[in-house]
Records
---
Amino acid sequence: MSDERPAPEGPATFRDVFGQAEFRALFTATALSWIGDYVAKAAVAVLVYRETESVALSAAAFAASYLPWLIGGPLLATIAERHRYREVMAVCDLIRMALMVLVALPWMPTWAIFVLIFAATLANPPSQAARSAVLPQILHGDRLVVGLSLQATAGQAAQVLGYLLGGVTAAFSPAAALLLNAATFAVSALLVRFGLRDRPPAMRAAHRSHLLRETGQGFQIVFGQPVLRAIAVLVFSSALFSIVPEGLAAAWAAERRGDLAGGTAQAIIMAANPVGYVVGGLVVARLFSPARRLALMRPLAVLAPAMLVPALLDPSPLVVALLAAACGFAVAGLVPAANGLFVQALPDSYRARAFGVMATGMQLIQGFAVLVTGALGERFSIPLVVGLWSAAGVVLMLVAALSWPDGRQVDAAVEAAQRANDPATPDEPPRRFAGRAGAPVAGGEQSTEHGRHRHAVT
């Protein structure tokens, strides 16, 4: 039975969020970096293919940007916890700017391009972890949830714009596209350096231990705390199926070559999910109250994979695109609300590390889903694979929704994080923040703006 309680504050508006000067600087810097990243991915793929005429090497150059997350994402993100977030973001932007300029040099051999791309993307985990950790220090309450939704929506829009801009620019000059990416990092570094306040590191020097141990504590806090673990399962599960139409778009379009030109069919299928996410993020954040968004998380979690089940009927590419867009819309209603609750139930000193765990998990799960469905698509028709994979996603989401923690557990986790964030409270091992299952809320309503919501979602 639902145990929803109304939030004391109404929904935050876009004006409330963009009224914060620090958020405007961070949002702009982040959007520029993302657009530059996708421009560079398109440009590097073209550059390597022109140099080698190898499809495999071109694809490998594209995939190289994901390797740092797979190899050492949580470890690299932990580094951000040890230093000032503003400093981490600015330095990472400058490093990536310099390396992108080197990649653009006309005499750079292919093997050096791979090395430089890999080195540049090593800066992504600490930079993104620092950005994720600093946002809750800028925005509080429902402004944080709306800010997260805007960031996620901007990321999807940046993907579409970056690929389009990168593809067009790289067709004429890959080097120009790479220099454009370097310029976005330069502007981002300036915005971060002069647009954000300088804050002390989340982890005090006296509480540092071995880097591997600190990284392990990131896993411990995410999977050892019942509420954080439930959110992680929900978010990871949504990634398990929502990426599949995009990952199989090229082969799917080839199978239905008679409906549309292959390139056009592939493009609309790949763009559909990000477009649906952008629309869903804006609509849900604008039209629904904080309490309603939390209550919608579980129904949307089940609805998202259900939108792809009609793929079993082998629809046309246009219908496939509509299904993928509907799935993206549902995921956009789920993920920002889940992220907002995740942040509020997480102690400040673990935010960068927890982000590293979550981001790495997303990369692994998305890659796993595309690899498995691609392998199945070699033996069976793609509509059958996507439809059955999505039906299994409905079952998985139903289990995740039914096992969602009750309201008292959620409230206890949020209050435990608030106690841990109190400057008068000494740092403790992560097990103190986990909270007992069903533990009562000791302090009632939180006095700080960051903790005013009663997150009872049962």
---
Amino acid sequence: MFLATSLSGNAHSVLADIDPIKRKDYQSICAALTSRFGTENRTEVFRVQLKNIRKRRDQELPELAQHIKRLSRKAYPKAQLELQEMLSRDNFIDALDDADKRLSIHQAHPKTLDDAVKLAVELEAFYIADKQRDKPSSVRNFAISESSEVSGQIKTLSDVVEELRREFQFLKSGMSQQRSGFNNNNNKPGKRGCWTCGETGHIRRNCPRYDKSKTNYQTKRQS
């Protein structure tokens, strides 16, 4: 009665399927629960899972080994411990995601699952260290390539700036020559001429034909 009242969820539904008379029998309840949740009737399912299991990328090797060991016991519940150990070892090696690791561990001939796990961890550490050793070289080559590309861009920009500078100097020189020629034309003696007689070589106030008194008289009348 204590077992029957403790069941819940799917287990409680199993109890509901039992004959009312057998619900009061402890052995009958255990048999029904074993038939529903036991592993004896699911060995083929566990064997298929064990055969198809593969290491996930984020899965640790000890975690994988523990999972395989548990599946081996469920897939072969009546097998001897030595046989279960051998099956766990072989399935662990086959579950590794790297062919080189699998070959290396097979060649080492580990006797137990723990030995295979130890070899796999050592190989994984070796591969990680080897990749880390090669990484600085790759980073250095990448840095050199980036530096060369940046240098090429800087050289291109420098050439463009130099070309613009030469063009600016050319334009500046042409403007200076135009300005100089304009000033020279305006400052040539005799170019303007006298406003009174029209001759060149002097201005109006120095003209011998210029009557200053008449100009003063006209100025006074206007004032």
